[in-house]
Amino acid sequence: MFFVAKKLYDTGEAGRVSASAVRIATAGVAVGIMVMIISICVTVGFQREIKSRVASLVGHVQVLNTQSLYRTHSTSIQITDSLMGELNRLPGVSNVHRFVLCPGMLKTENAFIGLFFRGVEAGFDKSFIAANIVSGRVPSFSSDSISNDSILVSASTASVLQVRAGDRVYAYFFDNNLRARRFVVSGIFQTNMADFDSKMCFTSMRTAQQLNRWQKDQFSGGEIILKDFSHVEKVSGQVSSMLSRKQDDYGQYYSSVRVDELFPQIFSWLTLLDTNVVAILILMICVAGVTMISGLLVLILERTRFIGVMKAMGSTNSQLRRIFLYLSSMIVVRGLLLGNVLALFLMALQKWTGLVTLDPASYYISYVPVHFPWTSILIVNIVTFLVCVLSLVVPTLVISHISPAKSIRFE
What we know:
Low-confidence stretches: none
Order of helices and strands: HHEEHEEHEEHEEHEHEEHEHHHHHHH
Shape: elongated
Largest sheet: 10 strands, mixed
Number of strands: 12
Mean pLDDT: 84
Structural class: alpha+beta
Radius of gyration: 32 Å
């Protein structure tokens, strides 16, 4: 039966009318699988890129003072080298570093802006910020120096203050007394994460500690960077168990929080994208299935005489149904191959050129990111093939109602 189906497929015995139907069916499958692959690649790429950006700024898991979870300002917690070692030894952890937050205000002659001074230590991974520098450079922040007067500000902050890299700017800090300090804008960055860019600037760790009047072992918290984002819940649970009811030398209790808990609105939005992709997959699979059913019905109706001759020669309905299922499967495979080639070519082109752009104010990124989840792509191809072939079983039942005597005379 497969041999007969292959001969029909190879020799173009589909007929003049059904040839158009076969092309339409092939195009339907190709377009369907192409849209599905593009949707998966873009959605997964977008989710990975946004998660990576957020984690690069605040870490996957943060160790904080319990009071920081309920207050708008940062409270100190002691994070010793031994605790850092324990956190670094957890499975799946790539890096751990400490940070200090200090609220203040930057002011020039014409404008001012309130934000947080984020003190970072020498071991801070600066690769993400360095990749998003638009002017100037990233200074070598020292964990111990209090004389470092360099700061990094965002492009939005620089625009408000009307400053450029190399300019000097005054900062003011408020507690019981008003304090002032002069900084040099070492560099200007733009991550396109508006919530972060508009509220944060970078300085050295010891500078931020001094501005908060904290000791050298007091920090706002520690950030844990993971090798794989999918392990964030597991590692967060391990950190929570490790720090449960634990106090530092100042009597403060430890707590931990995941990045998706720090930015629930962003991660809820990313989760919603999965729902949209599922809807697209279901719709495109239905489109591919319907076009194949239409094409198969045309094939069967135009090959009525062929079916009659085959029945007269002793072929059973089951055998004839298998012939047309094999023939339809070949058409589905051709459509899948065509759709895969087109989709992967377009996605590779976008990945390496970034031709399609986005509004960073709305999407946090200036281009459409692409990632190739090969397992998901393979599963979508298999599911599409199975759904299309299984949906063709019912149309082949028409063969059972074709009479050999009448069909041989059929025109």
